[in-house]
Design brief:
With 100 residues, the chain is mainly α. The protein has four helices and two strands.
């Protein structure tokens, strides 16, 4: 699966991104997921839910969306670092090209 690349993007990351877009744009049905949390984390989640007057499910969903987006970004960055055809630009070169 990881060997199949589409436009230089890791296939897994691309699929995660598409799934994330489907979820956030409402193009798919909701799926119930059951998780176990340590008591301390569950209490923190309850506190946040109470403070924001939002459900625990809302906050878990938003946290998971953020994690998946960050994970995809990291995977893309790692793929680019491993790609010998993708040139590395130093911070000095980047500042110069931006006129800074």
């Amino acid at each position: 699966m990881r060997e199949n690349r589409e436009k230089g993007i890791d296939t897994f990351v691309y699929n995660v991104y598409v799934a994330s877009q489907i979820h956030t744009t409402g193009e798919d049905m909701s799926t119930a997921v059951s998780i176990r949390l340590p008591d301390v984390l569950a209490k923190e989640l309850d506190h946040i839910a109470d403070e924001t007057e939002r459900s625990r499910s809302f906050h878990v969903q938003k946290a998971l969306e953020s994690y998946i987006e960050d994970f995809a970004d990291v995977q893309i960055a790692l793929d680019r670092l491993r790609d010998s055809k993708d040139t590395v630009v130093s911070s000095r070169e980047m500042r110069k090209s931006l006129g800074l």
